[in-house]
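Please fill in the sequence for the structure shown.

STRUCTURE ENCODING:
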């Protein structure tokens, strides 16, 4: 009788014996995760929930043989250790056989001397519980600092991810990554019936780049302004965004520099073309860098087993390279390049203060209600959760809330101005097994952005 709690070696052995299977990629991730939820208490910061979680995630990507020349089937499936292995493999193969894709191959050569990337905080790897308690004490001190706003709640998540990549060509690669997340919420009241809450969150990979006190102080401070606001007047403005929004917009626009877009007939910018058409502002230079210490997307290999090295994509607003994985490289008959890495953007020349004075009216977005972007068109839109209006004609600074903002990278990045200060950012989501890393200007000023009050 087949054991239900099967091993990774058993999975690989069975896949190797199945004649229908052309190639396979197996990924396994073992995660140790600590979660702590805090709520307000008159006496002290109260821990509402405290969890210690161990999880195992395992998936396979199958390439199966078809009778048609130059075609094969593909299927990606999550596997469960307590379900019979043969049943799951049979289901995956059957599903893959029902698909029809242009054929491509895994790399035939396994890389030698695969470099070690710095991706895991040593303190977290050694003792996650100790780090959780240390940061909790820092949060407690931050929460009990006297201020007009009131602390409502907070979350703190710490995790260490151990990942293994196994390819049917014989490659085995092991790596790990630490992740830190916090969320804080403060409210401010003018009367018992007039109050508002401000919530913010932040990710990091390394403890040194995780300023807990600054995160909580900023949240508490912005909560105090959340009631003293007006709606913006309809018009076109110079809009100041922070690195979180900038990295999201640039990250989405980089899809236009991928072989996948070229192959599928989606918007694509080939080497030699302008990244931002008719740019009159700071000229963007962008590198995909998988080597940065503690980057959210730092890695030695792609999921297809190819070495990943820094790749300059844009030089002074001119596209100079295409991100090409093995699959689309085979489709297009070109060599693969780097497809994973942290987004590195060269700095501008202005300080934050100078950026706020660049136009008669500058609106600084402190927080969107939710930014919606379209990678293919480069358009973006959102409601304004909180913003700051710099009226440089009168010298007055006021706060805004409500109304909507909309624009496009093609138009509003033409007069782009970047700060000379730079920052490291990380972001992770449940939609991907790896994150988005950014190292670049802390702020960017967009031009002629449409705002409806």
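FILLED IN BY: designer on duty
SEQUENCE:
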């Amino acid at each position: 009788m087949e054991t239900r709690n099967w091993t990774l070696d058993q999975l690989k052995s069975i896949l190797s014996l199945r004649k229908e299977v052309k190639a396979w990629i197996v990924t396994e991730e073992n995660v140790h995760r600590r979660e702590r939820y805090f709520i307000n208490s008159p006496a002290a910061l109260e821990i509402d929930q405290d969890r210690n979680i161990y999880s195992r995630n395992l998936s396979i990507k199958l390439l199966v043989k078809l009778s048609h020349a130059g075609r094969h089937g593909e299927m990606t499936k999550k596997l469960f250790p307590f379900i019979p292995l043969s049943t799951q493999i049979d289901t995956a193969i059957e599903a893959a056989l029902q698909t029809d894709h242009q054929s491509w191959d895994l790399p035939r050569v396994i890389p030698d001397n695969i470099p070690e990337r710095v991706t895991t905080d040593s303190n977290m790897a050694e003792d996650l519980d100790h780090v959780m308690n240390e940061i909790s004490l820092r949060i407690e001190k931050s929460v009990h600092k006297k201020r007009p706003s009131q602390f409502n709640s907070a979350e703190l998540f710490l995790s260490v991810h151990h990942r293994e990549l196994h390819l049917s060509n014989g490659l085995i690669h092991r790596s790990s990554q630490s992740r830190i997340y916090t969320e804080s919420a403060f409210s401010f009241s003018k009367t018992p019936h007039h109050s508002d809450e401000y919530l913010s969150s932040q990710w990091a990979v390394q403890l040194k780049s995780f300023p807990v006190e600054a995160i909580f102080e900023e949240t508490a401070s912005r909560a105090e302004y959340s009631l003293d606001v007006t709606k913006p007047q309809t018009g076109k403005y110079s809009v100041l965004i922070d690195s979180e929004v900038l990295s999201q917009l640039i990250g989405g626009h980089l899809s236009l520099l991928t072989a996948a877009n070229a192959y599928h007939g989606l918007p694509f910018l080939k080497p030699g073309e302008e990244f931002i058409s008719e740019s009159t502002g700071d000229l963007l230079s962008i590198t995909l860098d998988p080597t940065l210490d503690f980057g959210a997307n730092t890695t030695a290999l792609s999921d297809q087993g190819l070495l990943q090295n820094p790749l300059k994509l844009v030089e002074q607003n001119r596209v100079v390279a295409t991100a090409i994985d093995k699959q689309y490289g085979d489709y297009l008959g070109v060599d693969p390049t780097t497809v994973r890495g942290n987004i590195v953007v060269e700095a501008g020349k202005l300080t934050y203060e100078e950026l706020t004075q660049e136009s008669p009216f500058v609106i600084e977005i402190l927080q969107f209600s939710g930014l919606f972007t379209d990678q293919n068109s480069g358009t973006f839109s959102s409601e304004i959760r909180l913003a700051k209006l710099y009226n440089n004609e009168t010298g007055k600074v006021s706060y805004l809330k409500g109304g909507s903002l909309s624009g496009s990278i093609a138009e509003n990045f033409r007069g782009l101005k970047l700060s000379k200060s730079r920052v490291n950012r990380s972001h992770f989501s449940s939609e991907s097994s790896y994150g988005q890393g950014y190292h670049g200007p802390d702020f960017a000023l967009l031009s002629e952005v449409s705002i409806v009050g």
